[in-house]
Amino acid sequence: MQHYYNFTVSKKQISFDPYWYDNSSMLLHSFLGIILLTLGIIASHLNDLKSVLVLSILISTALFFRGIYEWKIKNKTTFIFDKNDDAFYKITPLSKKKITALSDILNIKTKSGSRNFYYILTLQNKASFKNIPLTNTIKNDNQNNPEVRFLEMEIIPQLESFLNIKKEGFTVFDSELINI
Questions:
Q1: CA dihedral of 129, 135, 139, 142, whole degrees rounded to 10
Q2: Which of 42, 142, 165, 172 could form an SS bridge with 160, CB 3.0 to 4.6 Å?
């Protein structure tokens, strides 16, 4: 079994941590929450508006819980592609969820904007198509990062090989599949 940055490969299983390069923004969310809470307390004392205080407490709590979610759950998410069970799993510290069968995976696409890009896994469940984000948004500035280059040069090609995904383009017009 080979193990790389966030990627473990064996003949029957691939394990992939999609958010390994994301830094937790727990400190930023806590700081913003404290500022909002302080502004809410000041505004409620100046104007005798209790609704501002309640609103600032709710927003601060939401920011704090979002930071905890990203720090403890999202950044510890693992995707497992298992040929033994013919399954694609998403594992978090709270649960292990089977997403789909490996045979339902059609391809891995790149979605890009002017400043960022990310990879999407395309599935076909019975009669519908479904897109699952395979990575978080990666800024183009980070493209020279060795871990991001490793994702592009090693992880994605090995996943395509493991899943037997053919490199062919296709376009959908009026619900018809046309091979290019």
A1: -140
A2: 165
Instruction: Provide the 10 A C-beta neighbour count for residue 138.
Output: 21
Question: Cα(94)–Cα(73) distance, rounded to whole angstroms?
Answer: 8
Q: Taking Cα atoms as reference points, which of 70, 89, 71, 72 lies closest to residue 80?
A: 89
Residue 177 in domain: no
pTM, to two decimals: 0.67
Write the DSSP symbol of residue 79: E
Measuring CA to CA, how many Å separate 77 from each of 16, 29, 148, 177? 9, 20, 17, 33
Confirm whether 169 is domain-assigned. no
In terms of residue numbers, what domain contains 58?
Answer: 26-72
Pair (7, 39) in one structural domain: no
45-57 pLDDT tens trace: 777 777 777 788 8
